[in-house]
Amino acid sequence: MSTIAPHHVEKSAMTFAVLGYGRFGQAFAGLLLQAGHRVRAFDPHAEVPAALAAASMSAAVDDASWIVLAMPVPQMRDALRTLRPQLRAGQTVLDVGSVKMHPCAMMDELLGAEIAHVGTHPLFGPLSLARDERPLRTVICASARHPQAAARARQLFAGLGCDVIEQDPDSHDRAMANTHALAFFLAKGLVDLGVDDDITLAPPSFQGLKHMLAAVRGDAGHLFAAIQRENPYAAEARARLIGSLESIHRKLLIDSDDEDGSLAIPSRPVP
Predict the structure, then answer these.
(1) Cα–chain-centroid distance for residue 31?
(2) How confident is the prediction along the chain (271 residues), in pLDDT tens digits per residue?
(3) Cβ 231 vs Cβ 181: under 8 Å
(4) CA-CA distances (angstroms) from residue 56 to 43, 83, 115, 182, 256?
């Protein structure tokens, strides 16, 4: 495994404890290092480069200004319970999960008013960073108890080159159910069908779908399930999609003339 050496540390550098060194944890640590910050990482289930590795969770968070929860959402409650006695005023906890209602509620419950915390969802990942896609975007969901933590998070992500979007956790998850969750649901079905096994004859318009299929194949195994199961609105969105596809399928079988134009794909209205 390649090692990661910290970049030149600027005077404004901060120390981050990255808890979870999966694909996104690695990518986010790299982004922090590129910005000149200090990073210590801990993950009992992954190999962390010696230059970043902390011997324990306690060693990782000691003297860290920011604690980044980059583990799978189902592991977050146990992690927060273990972490809580080791935290002190002046530190800020943020999560980077793809859903926000459950993580934000857990942080409010377990960290309370004493430990600053904020929910975030970086709308990028290892593949988009490798492709140097810009602009990067990040959603921030402030805790009513810690508006200043949200302000610091906005400054942090802006310093990493991100456009920042502010939303409440409910609005975030509703929006993600109709975009992120549905896109991954559709892509997972196509991957399971082997649609991208041979794309020799795929037209140029397939390239966007090809990137979506690559994202599903490349993401950590737990991410698809988390996007679908941890978002309280995802099941309803999937049901609507399935109903719409079944309706289109029936019309294609029985309506050869499409007299009402219902099978046409409407163009987007011009503003």
Answers:
(1) 14
(2) 334 444 444 557 899 999 999 999 999 999 999 999 999 999 999 999 999 999 999 999 999 999 999 999 999 999 999 999 999 999 999 999 999 999 999 999 999 999 999 999 999 988 788 878 888 999 999 999 999 999 999 999 999 999 999 999 999 999 999 999 999 899 889 888 888 777 777 787 787 787 778 777 766 566 888 899 999 999 999 999 999 999 999 988 887 777 777 777 777 776 6
(3) yes
(4) 8, 11, 20, 37, 65
Q: pTM for the full model? A: 0.86
Structure tokens at 31: 């982004």
HSE at residue 162, side-chain half, CA atoms within 13 A, is 27
The whole-angstrom separation of Cα 102 and Cα 100 is: 6
Angle made by CA atoms 35, 40, 111, in degrees to the nearest 5 = 100
Neighbours of 257 (CB within 10 A): 6
The Cα 63–Cα 11 span in angstroms is 16
CA distance 190 to 182: 12
